[in-house]
Design brief:
With 685 residues, this protein is mainly alpha-helical. The protein has 27 helices and no strands. Helix 1 crosses helix 3. The protein is elongated, with a radius of gyration of 44 Å. The chain starts with a helix and ends with a helix.
Length: 685
């Protein structure tokens, strides 16, 4: 029984399979019959020149259905099917050929209707994706081949010399050009260069035309739908999740890859063409960018159609990156030229002059101007310029003289001081001239160049340090003499006179340092830092003067004004309104202010807290000990410590200690307005 059941099941399966094959055979035969009728009608239309594109589409539709039917079953060895296959194959080949011819004709004429009809035929043949992919690849290959031909040195030589492939020039005369030559004959270099760039421009024009052909194909695919299924052709080709610009993206990717490969091989060959492209690299980039811009401009004219290039500028970046093999070599040479110009500024040893710095500035300008139209290249050029400026700064720092005569203040400028001043002056001039052009740059190249200018500014400070530090130390020593006697005697005034006269001497003997440099330039900043140091030192010492005899406060106010005026006039700091200058003005008024008017005075906001605290000792009870006395230091030592090492917290800790000790033994500590104000100032420190 089981065996009979298995036999019946096998028989039933075979009958079912046979039925499916028979149905498939019947369907193929019916479709073949319809195909013959459609093909015959098409041949009749050919004879009367009344061919209709819809007839080819109908034939393609039938061929597509036959193909699906044949793929749905095993018809091997069935005679009636085999008899039809020859005709089916012949129709398929002819239909595909006519569809390709129609597509080519439509693409050439840029006719959307003809292209759409041809694509419909390919869709009916179930080969739309394959055909479109092949078209895009062909257009990309044609663009790449045009670029390759433009760089071919042999055809370049023939074109430049006017010779044909046999070497025959105009008029039938034998040309001097030799096919094996990879370089122009003597005297023909400019002709070859001009011819090469014309060929590159022509190749980019070919790339533009091929790109627009791909865009036109993409545009039709984005509009065309199958009348029966309503399937969008573009989605059938690239998928529903892909971008509507996927075909153009594919073209640009293949073009960029092909151009990059040919440029790599050309550069590796290191011949005449490589040299011209390397020297004229910005022009090569311009040609590539113009091709992308032209495509974007032409495609933007069609409203609603997918674009040819990306709006985020990624297409331009991708195409320009194809020139990377040339770019690397170009900027390497550019950096070499820049660093050489920077090093030559100190070719004579420790001397730098205006002529050498002008050469460096000219070189920087030439390198930047060559790529100024291209922001992405400008960033690299500015980075190279920044590296050259760093080289200049490092050479300058090594050239700065730090011998004893570089810090001499009593005589006219020594040779060491003159050399240092020349370094500071020339580097400050470089910094000032380049800083003027920074606002015109985009953020990325501006930041790149600013980094180099920071190194230059640091070297300017290094060149001024030997003299300016000596000036600052000398002024510190003079201010310390203010504590040698009461301020109503001649010692304090003599110290101030010494400071002001020395500053005047410095201004006269070192005019290059005290008059050069633009406002906010590094040399001006170095002078400003010196001026702030002198004023800060004066305030720290002056605030420690506790005992004022008759006329002492007036003399202190006058000395404060004298120091401020000397700093501004000698160091050419007119108009400087930094915290130190504001503090000096405020302290001059504070000294003359009655004690009862101090609390609540706006001057408290201008004078530094540590200076206020120290000055208030001169208005506090005499029994209040000073932090210096409590630490067993004289006023000069305490002033030096507070200026160079002490933080505000350490200053307040010392002041608070004296206030606490006083409060333990004096009942007026909680009612004295000066002591209360001192605690309030210290707590905010």
């Amino acid at each position: 029984t089981l065996a009979r059941l298995e036999a019946s099941t096998t028989t039933l399966a075979r009958v079912t399979q046979t039925g499916e094959v028979l149905r498939g055979v019947v369907r193929v035969l019916k479709l073949s019959g319809k195909l013959r009728e459609a093909y015959a009608a098409r041949e009749d239309a050919d004879k009367t020149n009344e061919r209709d594109a819809s007839e080819l589409s109908k034939v393609a539709k039938l061929l597509g259905e036959i193909k699906l039917a044949l793929n749905g079953g095993d018809f091997a060895g069935i005679d009636v099917i085999d008899e039809q296959m020859s005709f089916i194959r012949e129709c398929a080949v002819g239909c595909a050929r006519e569809a390709n011819e129609a597509l080519s004709r439509g693409m050439e004429l840029k006719s959307q209707s003809e292209v759409g009809a041809a694509l419909q035929v390919h869709y009916n043949l179930n080969e739309l994706g394959k055909v479109v992919d092949a078209r895009v690849a062909a257009y990309a290959a044609a663009a790449v081949d045009a670029f390759k031909e433009a760089l071919d040195v042999e055809s370049l030589g023939r074109e430049a010399s006017g010779a044909d492939a046999r070497g025959i020039g105009p008029g039938g005369h034998k040309s001097n050009y030799r096919a094996s030559s990879s370089a122009p004959p003597s005297g023909a270099e400019h002709v070859w260069i001009d011819t090469l760039w014309r060929r590159v421009d022509a190749a980019m024009q070919d790339a533009h035309e091929n790109a627009m052909s791909v865009w036109h194909l993409q545009r039709v695919l984005a509009k065309k739908r199958d009348p029966l299924t309503q399937a969008l052709f573009l989605e059938e080709v690239v998928g529903k999740a892909a971008s509507s610009q996927a075909l153009c993206d594919r073209f640009w990717a293949m073009l960029a890859k092909g151009v990059s490969e040919h440029l790599s091989r050309t550069h590796a060959a290191a011949g005449f063409v490589s040299g011209v492209l390397l020297k004229g690299f910005p022009r090569l980039v311009g040609a590539l960018e113009e091709c992308v811009r032209a495509c974007a401009r032409d495609a933007d004219g069609a409203k609603g159609a997918p674009g040819c290039t990306r709006k985020d500028d990624s297409t331009r970046t991708q195409v320009v990156r194809a020139a990377e093999p040339i770019a690397v070599a170009y900027f390497a040479r550019s950096l070499s030229r820049l660093t050489e110009a920077a090093s030559n500024c100190f070719a004579g040893g420790r001397i730098i002059d205006e002529v050498s710095t002008n050469r460096l500035l000219s070189r920087i300008r030439n390198e930047i101007d060559a790529v100024a139209e291209y922001d992405h290249l400008l960033g690299t050029a500015c980075t190279n310029a920044s590296t050259a400026l760093k080289t200049l700064a490092e050479r300058a720092k090594r050239a700065v003289l730090r011998s004893a005569d570089a810090a001499n203040l009593t005589e006219d400028a020594t040779p060491s001081q003159q050399a240092n001043a020349q370094i500071a002056e020339q580097l400050s001039r470089v910094h000032g001239l380049l800083s003027r052009v920074l606002p015109s740059f985009a953020p990325t190249p501006r930041r790149a160049l600013e980094a180099g200018l920071e190194h230059v500014a640091s070297s300017v400070v290094s060149a001024t340090n030997p003299l300016f530090e000596a000036v600052g130390d000398w002024c510190d020593a003079r201010f310390a003499q203010m504590h040698a006697a009461s301020s109503d005697e001649n010692t304090g005034s003599a110290a101030i006179v010494a400071v002001t006269s020395t500053l005047a001497h410095i201004a006269e003997s070192h005019a290059a340092l005290t008059t050069s440099g633009t406002i906010r330039g590094p040399l001006f900043s170095a002078r400003l830092a010196l001026g702030e140091r002198i004023l800060t030192s004066f305030l720290n010492h002056a605030s420690l003067v506790r005992e004022f005899a008759q006329g002492g406060k007036m003399r202190m106010a006058k000395e404060c004004g004298d120091v401020e005026t000397a700093v501004k006039s000698s160091l050419r700091l007119g108009g400087a309104e930094t915290e130190a200058f504001k503090a000096a003005k405020a302290f001059k008024s504070l000294v003359l202010l009655p004690t009862e008017s101090i609390d609540g005075s706006p001057l408290l906001r201008e004078v530094p807290d540590r200076v206020l605290l120290h000055h208030l000792y001169s208005r506090a009870p005499q029994d209040l000990s000073t932090p210096a006395k409590r630490a067993s230091l004289n006023a000069a030592q305490y002033a030096s410590w507070s200026t160079k090492k002490a933080s505000d917290a350490e200053i307040w800790r010392g002041v608070k200690g004296t206030l606490d000790v006083y409060a333990e033994t004096h009942a007026d500590a909680k009612t004295n307005n000066v002591l209360i104000l001192m605690r309030r100032i210290g707590e905010r420190m």
